[in-house]
Amino acid sequence: MRLRRLILPLAATAALAGTAAGPAAADHAWANYHWARTGTTFTLTLGDNVSSAWDPYLDQASTDWSGSSVLDTSKATGTVTNLKRCTPPTGRVEVCNATYGNNGWLGLAQIWASGDHITKGAVKVNDSYFNTSSYNKAEWRRMVMCQEVGHTFGLGHQDENQTNTNLGTCMDYTSNPLGPPSNVAPNTHDYDQLVSIYAHVDSTTTVGAAAASPSAAGAGNSRAEWGTAVRYSRDGKPSLFARDLGNGEQVFTFVTWAE
Ligand SMILES: [Zn+2]
Ligand SMILES: [Zn+2]
Q1: Domain residues of the chain, as ranges?
Q2: Cα 64 to ligand 1 centroid, rounded to whole Å
Q3: What tens digit of pLDDT does each residue of 67-83 get?
């Protein structure tokens, strides 16, 4: 069976993401979505729109993901004027925090794609929860920031069961970020997955291709604006939504729910 798994085509392997029992193979891209780039490595800009309470966690996520051999992230001054929307310009990721309300979610990652190519991304962390004693903890802030930023590269979750043993990666659902093992940072499996996603080069680039005025279409904070649920976690909650914006463009919303 092991050999059979290994020779599955990439698309079939990706479809199994989230159902695998453990980190046996790099298989948690959620589809073929990736940033287009013409070189073998690239640097993605993370726009910093976060408050001082979040800065250390954004810095940590940037450092942690830059451990990848195929990509680096660099923090830059944010361009967002409306933190509730957190609309990114084309070619980069904007990271925002705000009191988004008691709407059930701790964090969102929103990824716009044209065909298979990611064109921009947004990360939102919800202070309506992180300001409470349950979530105002370093391990929760670090894990959620790490996970939402990870989604903007094209990574899915390694596991969507909140109550099983941690896999030791921030891309694993858990109700106990400290574990052990701790789920606050990426693991080797995540870096391997990035190598797999970015093994090819494209003839164009979507990295850093800034548009003059970003479109806010798709940058919503409520379920009604996210489109159709396309993945569900072990406990039956939707973990990924897709909305068709027309002209071959889609926006995907990954949701980290509060307990
Ligand atoms: Zn490509
Ligand atoms: Zn997630």
Answers
A1: 29-257
A2: 24
A3: 999 999 999 999 999 99
